[in-house]
């Protein structure tokens, strides 16, 4: 006996920023090739977008309106020994932000940076070449849990080696 049904929820866009609507933020590239990762932080209803259009940025957008709300400080984040200095960003359940670069091949180093608040200077939370393993790490990050109670896990995919790495904290994310 097989029972199947479909449910279609009505979804109404809250806002949109598109080339077709001619309302892309000035910092967003028209091709979208320099904006890679983004995350939503429920503690302040903000969206954080990694952008490489004209430099290295993490832009902040208002979650209710899509309006530009500034940017994170990226002091100290450089493109040394990686493909892109920042590529994806995630928010932990307690509101800390973590962003990683894109590391490809055996010699590049993957780096993960942490922001404790929107006004904070980023801190290097993790760095590794993964023992020279052939890799492509930084395309997709996933955060589960909170840094404040040491339940935080940041998942990294490596499709080149067909692996998933899980980073954990035991120092409350410090």
Helix content: under 10%
> How much β-strand is present in the residues?
35-45%
- Helix count equals 0
Give, in order, the helices and strands.
Answer: EEEEEEEEEEEE
Mean pLDDT: 91
The largest sheet is:
5 strands, antiparallel
* First and last CA, distance: 54 Å
What general outline do the C-alpha atoms trace?
globular
DSSP E strands, number: 12
Helix-and-strand structural type:
mainly beta
Radius of gyration from the alpha-carbon trace, in angstroms: 18 Å
Q: Could you name the ranges where pLDDT drops below 50 across 5 or more consecutive residues?
A: none
Structure description:
The protein is mainly β and 174 residues long. 0% of the residues lie in helices and 40% in strands. The chain is built from no helices and twelve strands. The protein has strands spanning 35-41, 46-51, 57-62, 68-71, 84-91, 97-104, 110-115, 123-128, 136-137, 141-144, 153-158, 163-168. Strands 5, 6, 7, 8 and 9 form a five-stranded antiparallel sheet that branches. It has a four-stranded antiparallel sheet with strand order 1-2-3-4, with no helix packed on it. The chain is globular, with a radius of gyration of 18 Å. 28% of the residues are buried. The mean pLDDT is 91.
Could you provide a short overview of the structure?
Helix content is 0%, strand content 40%.
């Amino acid at each position: 006996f097989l029972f199947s049904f479909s449910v279609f929820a009505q979804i109404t866009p809250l806002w949109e920023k598109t080339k077709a609507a001619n309302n892309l933020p000035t910092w967003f590239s028209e091709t979208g090739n320099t904006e890679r990762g983004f995350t939503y932080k429920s503690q302040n209803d903000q969206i954080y977008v990694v952008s490489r259009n004209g430099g290295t940025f993490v832009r902040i957008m208002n979650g209710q309106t899509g309006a530009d709300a500034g940017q994170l400080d990226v002091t100290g984040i450089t493109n040394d020994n990686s493909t892109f200095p920042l590529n994806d960003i995630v928010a932990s359940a307690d509101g800390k932000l973590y962003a990683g670069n894109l590391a490809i091949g055996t010699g590049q180093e993957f780096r993960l940076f942490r922001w404790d608040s929107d006004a904070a200077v980023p801190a290097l939370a993790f760095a590794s070449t993964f023992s020279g393993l052939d890799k492509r790490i930084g395309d997709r990050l996933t955060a589960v849990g909170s840094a404040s109670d040491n339940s935080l896990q940041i998942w990294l995919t490596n499709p080149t080696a067909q692996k998933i790495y899980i980073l954990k904290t035991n120092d409350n994310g410090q």
